Amino acid sequence: MKTYVLDASALYVFLQNKPAANKVNHLLKEAVRERAEILMSAVNYGEVYGAILREHGPDRNRRDYDRRPALADPLGGCDAPELP
Fold first, then answer.
1. Handedness of CA 35, 40, 46, 50 (dihedral sign)
2. How far apart are CA 28 and CA 18, in angstroms?
3. Helix 8-15 / helix 42-66 crossing angle, nearest 10 deg
4. pTM, full prediction
5. Do residues 4 and 36 touch, judged by C-beta distance below 8 A?
6. pLDDT tens digits, the chain, 84 residues: what are they?
7. For the purposes of burial, counting CB atoms within 10 Å of the CB of 10, is it exposed (0-12), middle (13-18) or buried (19 or more)?
8. Quick check: 23 and 56 in contact, CB under 8 A?
9. Sign of the CA dihedral 39, 47, 12, 69?
10. Tell me, what DSSP letter sits at residue 15?
11. Residues paired with residue 37 on neighbouring β-strands, in sequence order
C-alpha cells in the first residue's frame, strides 16, 4: 500500500474543485478502497480549517469539516486540549 502526504494546497485544490482536484480525488478514492493511505499534518489541516472559517464563517466551516476527506487522524492520535 502506498502512503501519500497531502499539504494544505492539495486539500484547497480538492475543496475548490480546481483542475488538479481530479488527482487528489483519485488518491482519496484509493484510500477509501484501502489501496492507499493519506496523511496530513495537523498544521496543514488547521490551515485549511482556519481559511474556511475566515472566508465563510462557522456554519460553512462545520459543513465542510463534516464532509472532509477520509484522512488519517489529523492530530496523530492526540486529543485536542480542553479550553479554559
1. negative
2. 15
3. 20
4. 0.65
5. yes
6. 899 999 999 988 988 889 899 999 999 899 889 999 988 888 888 888 788 778 877 776 566 656 555 554 444 444 444 444
7. buried
8. no
9. positive
10. H
11. 3
